[in-house]
Automatic annotation (TrEMBL):
One of its GO terms (cellular component) is membrane. Heme binds at residue 471. It is found in: Membrane. This is Cytochrome P450 CYP72A219-like. Residues 50-77 form a coiled coil. The keyword Metal-binding applies.
Length: 524
């Protein structure tokens, strides 16, 4: 009888637990999504009806696959290829629309005032996190943290990107850029003529990797090349993972992607630990060179102050700088060279400005070149701003609503996500005018604040984010890009090769040219 009683209790406990679990699952996958959908529709938002578990993901992936199968002209909107489902959703349902990321409704914010408010109130609107823990293996640095931890890390990192620090990096920028252009000249010479066809994309990637290695860790690209290869691979794997609905516990299933993610993460961690241990050892024996004003030295030095980072946190910040610092600038340079090839009048205008400001000598005296000299390149700045408008590194930013929040004239219910689609906002004719889809750097002649149709529309332009969370490396990326373009424009003119295929892609997180940037380089 006692045994039967214990069995009955056990069965009852199992039944209660199973019922509770089933209720939580049904609430997550059906009742909550339908409740959120009703709340949004009652406020005038529109979109496709929620479908159990998958939401819009199946249709979104099919549309993305179809868009990637078509060739596109360089004058077409890149959003048609990399952002087709939200693009068509907004066209069909209007600017107050939503899509379904699995069981989570994602509202599209297309009003610059709303975007400004969301990006300003960083504590009220934290960054979204993918539910799959494997996506955090790439880097969990300052860009992914929220709340007090974000504020602490931002405070520690800020000094590394002050203007005075950036001035010290000019010789490094120059050296890395010059080495790349010297390689191009060797390729041209080997052809026996004054021009050649070359895919400049991998060269730009290697050059920006070299800059990161030297400025962050005091080493060369060759020393850190394996880390870059692994981080690029991890970025591609994360895109695959992020496009799937995560089932709790799925990360432990030894799928091909899961297994490779863990292998890559382990190798990156070991490589980073090796670099850090080497620097710490040098610091302990009093090697002055070990206290360089690079990012790694700054982070390790913080361990001796009130603002403290663990070694694990130092590794994460270094990984983030490796990834974000390289990806952002290399893609910016690639799209700039592609667009200047398409629009040679702007290329020549930028070249003449460089020659006027910095002289006609092909060999720049970088000791006389500083950030103030680069800041005189107004045309180049306009061009870079316009490239970032048309090809923002991050096509959209995602924020979460943790409690019912009033935004403008509507209330977003807790559990909703907000999409801030830069790639769509940046080309909205209501904001930028009838030429919003065209390459026209002249719109930035009076700066970013007056570039929109209704001047000073804050929240309409955010290629590096906006507000307190604006990209900490923005000035670093701009200075590096200007240095590279200055050297390139002095020594080469360039045009699109007939073999160039225009294919914007987000297969590696940032907006990149999928099939490279094949150009015809002409030695000047």
């Amino acid at each position: 009888m006692e045994t039967l009683s214990k069995s009955s209790v056990f069965v009852a406990v199992v039944v209660v637990a199973a019922t509770a679990w089933l209720w939580r699952m049904m609430n997550w996958l059906w009742f909550k999504p339908k409740r959120l959908e009703n709340l949004l529709r009652n406020q005038g938002f529109d979109g496709r009806p929620y479908r159990f578990l998958k939401g819009d993901m199946k249709e979104a992936l099919e549309m993305l696959k179809e868009a990637k199968s078509r060739q596109m002209d360089i004058t077409e909107d890149a959003a048609l290829r990399v952002f087709p489902f939200p693009y068509h959703t907004i066209n069909k349902y209007g600017k107050k629309s939503f899509t379904w990321f699995g069981p989570v409704p994602r509202v599209h914010l297309m009003n610059p005032e709303h975007i400004k408010e969301v990006l300003t109130k960083v504590y009220e609107y934290p960054k979204a996190r993918n539910p799959n823990p494997l996506t955090s293996l790439l880097a969990r640095g300052v860009a992914s943290y929220n709340g007090d931890k974000w504020a602490q890390h931002r405070k520690i990192l800020n000094p590394a990107f002050h203007q005075e620090k950036l001035k010290l990096m000019v010789p490094v920028f120059y050296r890395s850029c010059k080495e790349m252009v010297d390689e191009w000249e060797k390729v041209v010479k080997s052809e026996g003529i004054s021009s050649c066809e070359l895919d400049v994309w991998p060269y730009l990637q290697n050059m920006t990797c070299d800059v990161i290695s030297r400025t962050a860790f005091g080493s060369s690209y060759k020393e850190g090349s394996r880390i870059f290869e692994l981080i690029r691979e991890m970025g591609t794997l994360i895109v695959q993972i992020a496009r799937q609905i995560y089932i709790p516990g799925w990360r432990f299933v030894p799928t091909k992607v899961n297994t490779r993610m863990k292998q890559v993460h382990k190798e990156i961690q070991e490589s980073m630990e090796g670099i850090i241990n080497k620097r710490q050892k040098a610091m302990r024996i009093g090697d002055d060179a070990a206290f360089n004003n690079d990012l790694l030295g700054l982070l390790l030095e913080s361990n001796n102050k009130d603002a403290y980072m663990t070694i694990e946190e130092v590794i994460e910040e270094c990984k983030l700088f490796y990834f974000a610092g390289q990806e952002t600038t290399s893609t910016l340079l690639a799209w700039t060279m592609i667009l200047l090839s398409k629009y040679p009048a702007w290329q020549e205008r930028a070249r003449q400005e460089v020659l006027h400001v910095l002289g006609t000598d092909l060999n720049i005296d970088f000791t006389a070149l500083d950030s103030s000299s680069l800041s005189q390149l107004k045309t180049m700045t306009m061009i870079i701003y316009e490239v970032l408008r048309l090809y923002p590194p991050a096509t959209q930013l995602i924020r979460v609503v943790e409690r019912d929040t009033k935004l403008g004239d509507f209330v977003l219910p807790a559990g909703t996500q907000m999409a801030l689609p830069a790639i769509l906002i940046h080309k909205d004719p209501e904001i930028w005018g009838d030429d919003a889809g065209e390459f026209n750097p002249e719109r930035f002649a009076d700066g970013v604040s007056k570039a929109t149709k209704n001047h000073n529309q804050q929240g309409a332009y955010f290629p590096f984010g906006w507000g307190p969370r604006i990209c900490i490396g923005q000035s670093f990326a701009m200075m590096e890009a200007k240095m590279a373009l200055t050297i390139i424009l002095k020594r080469f003119s360039f045009e699109l090769a007939s073999s160039y295929v225009h294919a914007p892609s987000t297969e590696a997180l940032t907006l990149q040219p999928q099939f490279g940037a094949r150009l015809i380089l002409h030695k000047l």
